[in-house]
Design a protein that fits this description.
The chain is an alpha/beta fold and 491 residues long. The chain folds into two domains: 3-262 and 464-480, Aldehyde Dehydrogenase, Chain A, domain 1 (3-Layer(aba) Sandwich); 267-453, Aldehyde Dehydrogenase, Chain A, domain 2 (3-Layer(aba) Sandwich), CATH 3.40.309. Helices cover 38% and strands 19% of the residues. It has helices at 3-6, 51-66, 75-91, 93-104, 108-111, 114-126, 129-133, 168-180, 197-205, 220-228, 241-254, 276-288, 308-321, 340-355, 387-390, 406-414, 429-437, 470-475, and strands at residues 16-19, 22-25, 31-36, 41-47, 136-139, 146-153, 157-160, 184-187, 213-215, 234-238, 258-261, 267-270, 300-304, 359-362, 377-380, 397-403, 423-425, 445-446, 464-465, 478-485. The strands form five sheets. The chain has a seven-stranded mixed sheet, sandwiched between helices. A hairpin with a 2-residue loop joins strand 1 (16-19) and strand 2. Helix 3 (75-91) runs antiparallel to helix 8, helix 3 packs across helix 9 (197-205) and helix 12 packs across helix 13. It is globular. The termini are far apart. Bound molecules: NADP nicotinamide-adenine-dinucleotide phosphate and magnesium ion. NADP nicotinamide-adenine-dinucleotide phosphate binds at residues 160-164, 169, 187, 189-190, 219-220, 223-224, 227, 238-240, 243, 246-247, 261-264, 295, 392, 394, 420, 459, 464.
């Protein structure tokens, strides 16, 4: 019996949104279906919010900002709420994981950690309260006066998330927004609108005042309306580069601050002295996490010509040995891809690879039977001009390219439109770091990759604008005010 046989989901077909501290029915009847990508079954649905619903959510957030208690609490009082939210999210870990796996096919092995990860993010930002607690006082260069530098909350934040990590990619925006004193309106992706309700439920259980956090489900048009709404002060978006560009355009015109976490095409540079056994132990997580649907993973492996065959063999064997199956099977490392559209996109890339002369050493096709399963695939003999080498596939596909010199490897790594993640594998950490420093990207791992709550994470070039995590990530939710005054006693 797998977990799937035991699950009884709390939310499947729902008709409400979370607005002004309560679950309220949508004023319309349009709905969005939620499909299980492993079975192709419609198992849930949510409202596609109306203009009236959007108005209600934005008005509630605006009231919470202008007249509510939230921005007026001290940062450490808000931090206490964040700590309570963290505990409440963790209490909901199992249900949240089951719902997430059913929405997007992420293996339960991964989603079982989603609540703990979210709680960790709330606790990390709670720990930054001290950073906001007292205003900086800075002397004028002449010494005749001083300035109080205040970090005010920026205002109502619109948080828009994609479907690949529906909890983490909301929480990494929500936690700093809340600590800063900002109310938020959350718009999850259409394929994954249900698991995030456990976070809203935790926010409610933690006693957060009405209007501070609101949830509006719906299509991209709902996201667009929220971005352009007159009461929106800041937009935080994670998703594709084309949609990010549209949002940046709208925010540019409106002079509205925006952070964008977009796509990637990151490289793992395997230096000639790399320990391939060590690399095998981290390969799936660093290059194929979440069935290849992770923005920062290094899906392009750059192997030295003299060890090319050895690298191809190791990568092929490692990928072929990892189990693909029902996301609810605790042994599954790979599930289906999340949506029918993504399945078609990934298969299109596999066809283009074949036409352009790449060689699949494992996988390479759709799996027979029900569900959006694409076989985990390794493509060898990939050259820099092939589409699979340049564009983000967002599916279980690794490409392996060949290089002759380390300079050429660095050039290859930097020669994409993106700049999000990256890896260097080497037995010599100093040599690896020297290569990492030459990579034109937001984050690089030496022999492993993981994100650190306290280190900024973000992309360069077409991978985005701004960063999340760390005090740098908190800064995106603040606006500064300098109050100039004579020093006390000399007024
Ligand atoms: P997407 O199509 O860009 O959608 C992301 C979110 O934006 C969804 O909530 C979507 O709603 C909404 N949206 C669509 N059109 C909009 C518009 N015109 N205005 C405002 N919002 C709009 O991305 P996706 O397909 O969900 O996710 C996959 C992409 O996300 C990949 O390219 C991946 O690299 C990127 N990603 C980046 C990071 C990172 O941190 N850098 C992390 C994860 C994923 P609907 O779902 O209703 O269309
Ligand atoms: Mg999309």
């Amino acid at each position: 019996m797998t977990v799937r046989d035991r699950i009884d989901l709390r939310w499947t077909h729902v008709d409400d949104l979370y607005v002004d501290g309560a679950w309220v029915p949508s004023t319309g009847s349009a709905r969005i279906d939620v499909v299980d990508p492993a079975t192709e079954e419609v198992w849930g649905s949510v409202p596609d919010a109306t203009a009236e619903d959007i108005e209600a959510a934005m008005a509630a957030a605006d009231r919470a900002f202008r007249t509510g208690p939230w921005p007026r609490l001290s940062p450490s009082e808000r931090a206490d709420y964040l700590l309570r939210i963290a505990d409440e999210v963790e209490k909901r870990a199992d249900e949240l994981a089951w719902t997430n796996s059913r929405e997007n096919g992420t293996p339960i092995l991964e989603t079982m950690g989603a609540a703990a990860n979210a709680a960790g993010i709330f606790r990390y930002f709670a720990g930054l309260a001290g950073y906001l607690e007292s205003d900086d006082v800075r002397a004028f260069p002449s010494g005749a006066a001083e300035s109080v530098v205040r970090r005010d909350p920026v205002g109502v934040c619109v948080l828009i998330a994609p479907w690949n990590f529906p909890i983490n990619l909301v929480v990494i925006k929500l936690a700093p927004a809340l600590l800063a004193g900002c109310p938020a309106v959350v718009k999850p992706a259409s394929p994954t609108p249900l698991s995030i309700r456990f976070v809203l439920d935790a926010v409610e259980a933690a006693g957060v005042p009405a209007g501070v956090v609101n949830l509006v489900t719906g299509s991209g048009a709902v996201g667009d309306a929220l971005v352009r709404h007159p009461l929106t002060a800041k937009v935080a978006f994670t998703g594709s580069t084309p949609v990010g560009r549209k949002i940046a355009g709208a925010c540019g015109e409106l002079l509205r601050p925006v952070t964008l976490e977009l796509g990637g095409k990151s490289s793992a540079i395997v230096l000639p002295d790399a320990d391939l056994e060590q690399m095998a132990s981290v390969l799936i997580r660093s290059s194929m996490r979440n069935t290849g649907q992770t923005c920062y993973i290094s899906t392009r492996i750059l192997a030295p010509a003299e060890r090319y065959d050895e690298v191809v063999e190791m990568v092929t064997d490692t990928v072929a040995a990892a189990k693909q199956g029902d996301p609810f099977d605790p042994e599954s490392v790979f599930g289906p891809v999340a949506t029918r559209a993504q399945y078609d996109t990934v298969l299109g890339y596999l066809r283009s690879a074949e036409e352009e002369g790449a060689r699949a050493t494992t996988g390479g096709r759709a799996r027979d039977g029900v569900g959006y399963f694409v076989e985990p695939t390794v493509l060898a003999d990939v050259t820099p001009d092939m589409r699979v080498s340049r564009e983000e596939i967002f599916g279980p596909v690794i490409t392996i390219l060949r290089y002759d010199t380390v300079d050429e490897a660095v050039e290859l790594a930097n020669n994409t439109e993106f700049g999000l993640g990256g890896l260097v594998f080497s037995a010599d950490q100093t040599a690896a770091q020297a290569v990492a420093e030459r990579m034109d990207t937001g984050s690089v791992g030496l022999n492993f990759f993981a994100s650190n709550h306290s280190a900024p994470f973000g992309g360069r070039h077409d991978s985005g604008l701004g960063v999340e995590y760390g005090v740098e990530g908190l800064a995106a939710y603040l606006t500064y005010k300098s109050i100039h005054r004579r020093p006390k006693g000399s007024e």
